[in-house]
Predict the 3D structure of the following.
Amino acid sequence: MRFWMTNLVLVLLILLPIFVRDRHLYHILIVIFIYATLVQSWNLPGGYTGYTSFGHVLFFGIGGYTTAMLVVFLSVPAVVTYLIAGVLSSLVALIFGYVSLRLKGPYFAIATLALATIGRYVFLNVEIFGGAEGVLMPMSSFSTDIEKIPYYYGTLLVAVLTTLTVYLIIKTRLGLGLMAIRENEEKAAGAGINTTKHKVIAFMVSAFFPGVIGGLYASYLEYVNPDSCFSILYSANILLMAILGGIGTIAGPILGSAVVVMLSEVFSLALGHQGRLIIFGLILTLLAIYLPGGLLSLKEKFRDPKKTATAFESKTKVA
Amino acid sequence: MKSFFIFAQLLINGVLLGGVYAVMASGLSLIFGVVRVLQISHSVLIILGCYFSYSVNRTLSLDPILSLLITMPVMFFIGIAVYRLVVAPLKDAPPVAALLAFFGLILALENTIGLIWTTNYNAIHSVYQGKSFLLSGFVFSLPKTIAFGMACLVIFTLLIFLRNTETGRAIRAVSQDRDTAQILGVDVDRIFVIVFGISATLAAVGGSLMGMIYSFYPSLHWSWLGVVFSVVILGGLGQVGGAIIAALIIGVAEILAAYYIGAAWGPFVAFAILIITLVHRPQGLLGTKGQRI
């Protein structure tokens, strides 16, 4: 049943451009796919392993700048740069993860927040990256009425690939190892799991797709600058979407990103930029306190009010 | 000789800044030592205190130091509200849930500040603004020196309070061993309330002093987040004494980096020190090797 539903939605999304030409709709869907990719990737270390990154925007930003620099200065075809962007993000994740994944959850969170800020400073202040203005990329060669369609399919493809990758990982031994680390890292190590290797692999995978999608987003915007690539709001949105949908689930990130992006549209119109962020901040706080399992846990709550423990809740009780 | 002179002048400026950093971070250090949560929204309380002082300073044209008399009690109650509304309900939740809740609070408060006071640059005005004096050849900016003096006074008062009063001793007891303190009749919940109140009050002082020295805008607290956390973690979590030393180090490092590398790189230093400390010496400068975080 669920399998058919998923496929039906996917087919509808693929066929959508035949029927609809509304540019704004495609923009919203592209943003949803980008966030679905980011949140789904974040979920691998964040939801399944218990290492919450508060600076996942870093990999998105690295991806964006990689594509922009390669396209502008070396005239590399954009499609190739997306892969390079992903690989480069993974490399940064390898180096940073190797040294910082030893830290326990909350300290890891702070280290990632600091690293993302450092990333922003570097791209803002190293001259070759163009400072606050960033880098302008060549204009799209598509005509205006269809220019969003390639990015629509591109971001959809990356979001689907990310979801499939995470799904496959959590169904294999690697995924079981990650979840064992979340439940009790010492015991997992005692059971013979190479925890460092597991965590670093999870972190590298979770950096790859944000790198790719960051590159795609740079092509889509046709420019990069520190705000478009490294705004703390991306990290904030990722956290909000993850917890709203349901941390440590496959459907959660998709649900969370769709709901938050659509709410963003509504709230921005009704309350303005700052009003929206105040509401989102309050929602994030309230969710963390009263509904840490997210929307998906509501279903279980109704079915069995006593059993509300989700992946997120059970995570550190043992520690 | 000239370069040495410049270096000494930079050291002075760094120490003056470090004193203010010590106040900014002391509240965070206190919370970590006693309540054992990472209050990442501390820096947004600092900027909130800064804006309160700014408003008092503007509407009553009061001296920034005197405006603290109004700002501090207000922030004390805001600190209590943060404890009651966010921290207390999360007592048994995993630490990451508290971080997420604080992150939401940061977003909400930063944008509320932006909505009330706009996102433009602002400054707290005083009669001594822009004035300075010479002492054995070195320039001392008057606002910075006054801020430093005020910072010393506040930290000294805090240490005396922790050492010599009944409540202060109870706070230290809870910090050392929460369960035993509770058995001995300390009302732990009340101590947490007081600690959050004091911490927000210290944030108000730190923010107001920063507002006297530099201009500010709502999202500036993100770079202060790096400062306060690098101070607290370099100093050893929960150790107010270590935090003071760390604050001076970071103040000096920031001023040196801003001069020798480039003005834009000043705030970068705190974040770099934060990551290096977390990775290489998570127990901090004064912590013992056994402490792992």
About this structure: The beta strands of chain B are 132-135, 138-141. Residues 2-35 of chain B form the longest helix (34 residues). The radius of gyration of chain B is 19 Å.
